[in-house]
Amino acid sequence: MKRLVSLAALTAAIAVAGCSKKAEPEQLPPPPATVETGAPQRPTPTPTGPVAGSNADFLAQMQGRNVIYFDTDKYDIDATDQVALRAQAEWLQRYPAKRATIEGHADERGTREYNIALGERRATAAKNYLV
Q1: What is the distance between the alpha carbons of residues 86 and 83, in angstroms, rounded to a whole number?
Q2: What spatial distance separates the first Cα and last Cα of the chain, rounded to whole Å?
Q3: Which residue ranges make up each domain of the chain?
Q4: How far is 72 from 84, CA to CA, in rounded Å?
Q5: How far apart are CA 31 and CA 58, in angstroms?
Q6: How deeply is 57 buried, as exposed, middle or buried, from its count of CB atoms within 10 A (0-12, 13-18, 19+)?
Q7: In terms of DSSP H, where are the helices of the chain?
């Protein structure tokens, strides 16, 4: 019984010691005073669309024509893909500092070597059309 009372007293002492006074929050310095210049400042207009020459601008201009698709086992560019590539070329000419990466892909059918070669032929076909 004495052991239980001692244990309860020890627990109460630890609990009371653990409770401490909350630290007062530091006083923040007052915000800097604003100086009125007489003429009211007009808010700067925010652009409503993407920034010209950005990736978002490219995607907005292409309207879904930023990727071309090839028929199965083909690497020739059809008429609809020519329109897409022409639009991409015009955008790149407007922003000559921008760079483009041309990649050719293939689906998982076929051997790895065949798909790599087909992807390379597709990328070369797109590059040759653009250049």
Answers
A1: 5
A2: 95
A3: 73-130
A4: 19
A5: 42
A6: middle
A7: 2-18, 55-62, 79-94, 112-130
Position 7, amino acid: L
Superfamily of domain 73-130: OmpA-like domain (3.30.1330.60)
* Rounded CA separation 60/42 (Å): 30
Q: What is the separation of C-alpha 108 from the centre of its chain, rounded to a whole number of angstroms?
A: 27
pTM: 0.59
Distance, C-alpha 115 to centroid of its chain: 29
Q: How does pLDDT run across 9-44, given as a tens digit for each residue?
A: 656 556 555 555 565 666 777 777 766 666 666 766
117 Cβ contact partners less than 8 Å away, ≥ 6 residues apart: none
